[in-house]
Amino acid sequence: MYRTPTPNLYSICTYPNWVNNLLLRHIDEATVLANDTGQWDEIYTVTAGEKWETGDTEQYAGLPYLTDTYGANLKVIYHDTLPQQLGPSLDDGNGFVQSIEENRDGREGILDITKDAGFVAGSGEGVSAWWTVPHLDYWEGGMEESTYGDINRHPNMDYDQEFADDDYPCGPGDPDYPCDPEGPGSWHDQETACMDETVRIPLLALQWHNYVAETWNWRDSNFVVGSLSWKKDLFNILYGAMPMWHVTSDLWTAHSAEYIASYKKLLAGPAGEWLRGNDGSRVCDRRPSRPKNRVEQR
Hints:
By secondary structure, the chain is mostly helical.
């Protein structure tokens, strides 16, 4: 289930990019509060955490309400922008005041509430929210070498263009061919900048791959560029990451063999054994170095 116990900050204040502008002191608190939407208390993590843990009505749809509504069918909760939207909580006149550190700690607590209730807890932030890792079971975007919102390299609406050729979105005959040098470039070139073995230093994945399951960004599938899918298969095998696909009826008809082969490549190796719950000693030496919900030592 997709659920964000605290809202996106852009639904709290309408001033453009207000968090960064405030932190850099380009604007003051009065400017933010003059543009707020009256929902300031919803990013105050004390209130939000209490609602998430105890809310049993449709208005305060916390874990008790969701459990009563969906029963045993509810097993996975994806918090998505919960960590990404870390920002200051200002005094709105009603006493909702938190420091950035208090707000972060409260968001960690909300993730822990989800895990402690027995649900699989996930989120998705690329490399921008490393502090969430000990509080998650899976981490969408952890395979990226960029921030989660890197729209240039992860096109937001073109996911029907799976198996793109090396020139896409430009090509022979296009007036901008080869791609506009001032623009982001072809998808192939943007992917290579992240995946090439001479530039990719996946320290996050190396550190955490046996603690929290990782995937690529949802916009950045295994087959976003056809000629590079083999390399993503190799990364998936190395880190035990599940394949990320975009599938339409047309794409499945045309490429089902490639999708199935990508999945089987992962399950055939030692990472697949580990993911199925068998002995994982060949994958990594698992040595807990900290208490529960702390990153492990390699």
